[in-house]
Amino acid sequence: MVCRRQVAVGAYVTPFPDRLHIITWNVGSAMPPDDITTLLGLNVGDGNTDMYIIGLQEVNSMINKRLKDVLFTDQWSEVCMERLSPFGYVLVTSQRMQGLLLLVFAKYFHLPFLRGVQTETTRTGLGGYWGNKGGVSARMMVFGHSICFLNCHLPAHMENHEERMEDFESILQQQQFEGQAATGVLDHE
Predict the structure, then answer these.
(1) Res. 5: pLDDT tops 90
(2) Whole-angstrom Cα distance, residue 147 to residue 3?
(3) pTM of the full predicted structure?
(4) Is a pLDDT exceeding 80 seen at residue 178?
(5) Can you give the chain as a three-state secondary structure string?
(6) From the record, what ranges are coiled-coil (predicted)?
């Protein structure tokens, strides 16, 4: 995604971060690979990516793994941080709901221009009681522009298309953020 906006900040003009690397991947309970360089595009890019948004589905959510992840950082977050931090990226926010994980990284020098970071979760599995299906999101103001990233894991297969659409509508309705502007997912720029 390339945005060519500029935002006035103080006495100079600061460009809106225009290079986002967005990943969505159903990892099927697999462990992170040893090298995620290709996944992150670090081997082909020019190093000018401003933000990484990583949405994973089916991250191992067995009870023993979840208990460990409560006490320590989960393995997927760790491998992403280890790979991105040498290039000047920091974890802005993360949101986990069972096997659903959303990570947002930004270059460290963008941090003063990121405001109002909030996250939301919506369970849709078992009638809204179980988080194996649903959505996690992160919203923020980036250089004065409201943006929202939504990672969903919905029922699979063609025969479940109506349930999938209902779940998505439910996620959009239930995910409400605090603040006066951009309270819903679709209210963001």
Answers:
(1) no
(2) 12
(3) 0.85
(4) yes
(5) CCCCCEEEECCEEEECCCCEEEEEEECCCCCCCCCCHHHHCCCCCCCCCCEEEEEEECCCCCHHHHHHHHHCCCHHHHHHHHHHHHHCEEEEEEEEECCEEEEEEEEHHHHHHEEEEEEEEEEEEHHHCEEEEEEEEEEEEECCEEEEEEEEECCCCHHHHHHHHHHHHHHHHHCECCCCCCCEHHHCC
(6) none
| CA–CA separation, 146 and 127 (whole Å) | 31
Place of tokens 């603040």: 179
Return the pLDDT at 132. Answer: 87
| More confident call, 76 vs 125 | 76
Closest CA to 145 of 110, 102, 103, 101: 110
Residue 75 scores a pLDDT above 80: yes
Residue 73: both structure tokens together: 């950082």
Neighbours of 37 (CB within 10 A): 12
Please, what are the domains in the chain?
Answer: 6-177 (3.60.10.10)
Q: 144-155 as b/e, with b when 16 or more CB fall inside 10 Å?
A: ebbbbbbbbbbb
Considering only residues 47 and 102, tell me which one the structure prediction assigns the higher pLDDT: 102
The dihedral over CA atoms of 24, 27, 33, 38, expressed in degrees to the nearest 10, equals: -30
Structure tokens at 50: 């401003």
pLDDT of residue 63: 53
